[in-house]
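Reopening closed ticket. The problem is back. First fold of the pair:
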Amino acid sequence: MKADFSILCDFVAAHGNESPDALLLGRSKWPDIDIDAAVNTLRGRERLHRKVPDWAGNQSLVFPTDLCTQQCSSAETAGFKVALAKSILKGKSAGEARLADLTGGLGVDAFAFASNFGKVLYNEADERLAAAAQWNFSHLGAGNITISNRFVESGNLQEILGGFKPDILFLDPARRAVDGRKVFMLEDCSPDILSIKDELLSLSQAVMVKLSPMADISRVVGQLGDCVSLVCTVACGGECKELLLVLEAGHSGPASLCIYEDGTVIRRPSCKDGGDIKLFSTPAEFESSCGALIFEPGKALLKSGLFNAPCSEGYVKLAGSTHLYICRGSSGLPGKYFRIKEIRPMSSKGLKAISKTGISAEVSTHNLPIKAEDLKKRLRASSSPSEHIFACKVEFVSAPSGNYLIFASREA
């Protein structure tokens, strides 16, 4: 297999400037080359330039399937998982600890763990990926990773581990059905964490599970029960990428929450309690907010479901289902901040007047029965990277709710 990968790398180096489609069409010219793997390697390198640049620039690495580079962790999210794993270690330093990645995939997470932990076991059911991982790890200088090629199922976890005694187990269940559909419920993923949960917890003090960002937090925590000690929502680049759960045997009580977005980490004692909502008392109080900031939460905070959490930082929420907040100064919550220039009640007459001004701004709608693109057309607004119009419903403590337009400029 190593010799095959060596030939594959030589072929990719010689044909790297050619069109992948042309290589696929001309596969008969190279009967001894796995053209699909060569094309997947070329496309994978391009894809990894943004996600894992160190891997993309290493010409000795191979990526035999297209899906492996599509679904792999980024360097940033892998780094967060390392920090999270270190934080849940008990009684050992990372350099002494052992971690087993039971669903290794391309190996980005396993390599990040190996760069920080004493020993790592990488297991992957797909023989092609396991062989590629062994090749890639050797060319990345990771000498502390043991390779296993077994399918994870109830009753065989101890066989996969052999004599390897992990302090932490990590799993990223496959989120593809047999027919190729994307799935995100625990019972539809492979392996089924629900069926092997007790076995996992009998083999390690802690289990980290990566789930789809589409998974329902309340549902999965309810399914897994009291062993869930921590829930993490992970976002970067304006997109929620992962949901991570930490399971610990003997844990009881509510799970705590960790929110990660673009380097900012926020911890909360519970993943269920978002605190009390804080609203403006009257329209006059709200309309006096010119010069203040409007806060649009990041994707990780929104995924957490703690929509009232910013109110505990002194922010005022615009409405129960309008997830926008007004604050006098940023407290560092992850998201976007805009400086409010003007606030107007939203009316047909007002929209018509704005449409005649030739305004330049991005437009978003919040808790209103109109789509942003439709409102933008109605306003005849051209795009602007720095200006924004928020159309939203605002609720008040001592007055009926109203619909408003908030004109704001993006803060650096």
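Second fold of the pair, where the issue appears:
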Amino acid sequence: MKKISAKNFFNENETLDPAIREQFLFKDIGLKLKQITEKSVGWKKRLNEVDLEKIHTREDLNNIPITRKSSLIEMQKANFPYAGFNIKDTSEYAYMFASPGPIYEPGEKGDFWNMSSCLYAAGLRKGDLVYNTFSYHLGPAGIMIGNSAINFGCSVLPGGIGNTDLQIETIRAVKPNFYIGTPSFLKIILDKIADKNIDISFLKNALVGAEPFPNDLRKYFKEKYKIVPLQMYGTAEVGCIAYESKDHNYEVNNGMIVEENIILEIVKPGSNQQVKKGEVGEIVVTKLNSSYPMIRLATGDLSAIIDVPSPCGRTNLRIKGWMGRADQSTKVKGIFITPEQIHKLTSNFAEIVKARFVIESKDFLDYPVLVCEVKNEKSIKKDEIQTFFKSQFKLNTRVNFVEKGTIANDGLVIEDKRNNN
């Protein structure tokens, strides 16, 4: 195997001993949280009932409430524009963005969103010419990655979206060697360039994101155009969360490496509690070293930890990548049911290890059943659970007991099978 050297990484932190990294991430974390609450009215309100002096480790984060990205819209309406989560005056930020929702986010110049490591892993080097097809309008995608590339020492051509024919002519003329954007738009561009018999060998590397990147499309890019794009995963609130890397043969390694400035947890959907390593759950991120800190922000995306270091030599946690959405809320017999409600069962009944609400249809009517993994069937009665469920959520349901390990480890709390019948 090719020897791994320092030039394979953007900075030396990417190869830190995992124990040292953990110490660094959680050093004085209670004090840091307290300082944030002193500057931010939003975080002061959210963490008002938490004893921050007792937050020292990753496990202690379970005592901090989760803030769901889906709730930011209403929170920002109550405290416009950033829900009070900013630690300086709103006028002091270089940018203001309005993502769909709308959700408003501030931004700064330079590598504010910590995109340098993912760009470097994808092959970007100082002096490259970058063609950026992410949008520069309202949302932050174009600027958040483009600014990082500029900070990297590269020139960026802000192509944005649309005007495909003009973009192809521009690409033909300037010959960029690095692409940024969605994988689907990369395919559109490459296919149209190929149709015009334009040589595209100048395009060496690409970083893609914002949508799923299926393996068959990866294979298509590699076989037809000799390019191996890597993908990153992030949000407007914190920037890069995780990114892919290549091995010494330029093959894509499994999973995505967590960005150094991020504390990432996987929690059971609908709860505050971390799952065991390897289990599927919702991605929750904390980023403190920012003028717009985020504390246990639930992204709504499902993934799982890969408990093995990456072959590329980076030592941070890895996740399996995007595995679906955690927001499984639905209506049953006209009543809204959420993962948080199902989680109340395991909180109120110690005998229930795991629960899943399965909805089928029978004769065009909803036919729900609550499947419960239990420690000992003799110590709990089905009618107790049915009564609790009816009293809490105004819904009658059947209850089935199953042995531990029966419910699949796929992150599903509510499984809607009605469309499959």
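Update: turned out to be a display glitch only; the data is intact. The chain has eleven helices and 21 strands. The chain has a mean pLDDT of 92. Please close again.
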